[in-house]
Write a structure and sequence with these properties.
alpha/beta; six-stranded parallel sheet; 291 residues; three-stranded parallel sheet; Rossmann fold
Amino acid sequence: MTILDGKKTALEIKNEIKLKVSDMKANGERVPHLAAVLVGNDGASLTYVGSKVRSCEQIGFESTLIRLEETITEENLIQEINKLNQNETLDGFIVQLPLPKHINEERVLLAIDPKKDVDGFHPANFGRMALDLDAFIPATPFGIMQLLERYKVPTSGKHCVVVGRSHIVGRPISILMSQKGPTGDATVTVAHSRTQNLSELTRQADIIVMALGIPEYLTADMVKEGVTVIDVGITRVADEIHPKGYVIKGDVAYDEVANKASFITPVPGGVGPMTIAMLLQNTLLARQWKV
């Protein structure tokens, strides 16, 4: 069994980007610039954005954090986004989700210039990705594909079951896995919370991508020997014994499933670290595509 180490792989990718940024500086070129828009004071969002800003500093990117009051109107937020769209020194930016309930997330995401949409959420990027054209791929699916490629996980002709149909993970990874390429050419089944007899599908699968959001849902009796398991789930589960009062669980019952798997991602330390690394990769691409 091989652990797909996202923490180690993300560090390798960051170091690769850092070298490219050093070359840019040596050639007198402007380095990539990433901005993050944070509305309100949600604790998890503050943590995520802080991690992204620190990652930018580590690899030599310019970074800007724009903090806005939770009470900002939707119109004023879109005005702020338009300023970022027009800022020529900015290569890409993200709007940290979730947004306050009075703001329509779809309207906000549609307001982002697709050429600066390094989260890969804009329909223009989703459509280009589906057509196998140059596009910003959503960071989590992008990270999964990198893990599969760098660990040389066999995918061609394999049956891949994706459990989850979100626009951020489930749908894009199902498209990517079915496309031609070194980590594609799989036959893909998309399942979800309404799928009947889900365990029958997962037992047939050579590759399973779990993005359901239910802790330890996938158990050993639901998989076959030699399966590859990608766990996208990340849920805080109360634990009175733990100093923090909770533990982080994925969608996979790791200890039991790992005994049957050929490749598996841990939680934490699997897909999560890859997400930030691929956001940085998208920002580098945005800078390069401007040239």
